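Box 3.1 A note on notation
Throughout this textbook, protein chains are presented in two layers. The first layer is the amino acid sequence; the second is a token string describing backbone geometry. Keep the layers aligned when reading.
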Amino acid sequence: MMEKKIAKDLLKIKAVFFRPDEPFTWASGIKSPVYCDNRLTLTAPEVRLDVEQGLAQLIKENYPEAEVLMGTSTAGIAHAAITAHLLNMPMGYVRSGAKDHGRQNQIEGRLEPGQKVVVVEDLISTGGSVLEVVDVLREAGADVLGVVSIFTYGMKKGLERLAAANVKNISLTNFDVVAAAAAEEGYIRPEDVQRLIAFRNNPSDESWIGK
């Protein structure tokens, strides 16, 4: 099963790292039992190959009519480039803001109005950043088929935001699968899984801490 294989890959290289007894603090101030840095996949060739082949497979299966891949900046750019190479497809990326020099592009690479685009993202949490990219592409006339990503938290807020914007996301793996794999592989205690799911269900409720 691809979800479990990728989950084990991410745990092995500590791209996903659980620390329920010593939570991380996100920029938003939320205490989190998990730290996720999928950029680490780029420096682990075996895992990188699993990830990029997996993304290519998701695109072929879920978005067979895709014409262009667009990466989110900066984390999605490398994944979009490698996956596009495997699929022999054009790719570009969307800047987080328009350049203040040159042609002031926010979309880098050629994009024709009406082209069918899939957005490549590394991580989906609340969905805000990927939806900004989708908006930019739609404003440029692209037909955004949806998103592929390496990992999703499956947070209620993110799912609701994506649904409201009519954006489909398909991920290689998700928080629940990675948490179960972490317990199975001995990275965390089996009883920690429910604490992690409690965090996932409501990140602002800190009652999972110290249990």
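Helices lie at 2-12, 45-62, 75-87, 128-139, 156-164, 175-184, 192-201. The chain has seven helices and ten strands.
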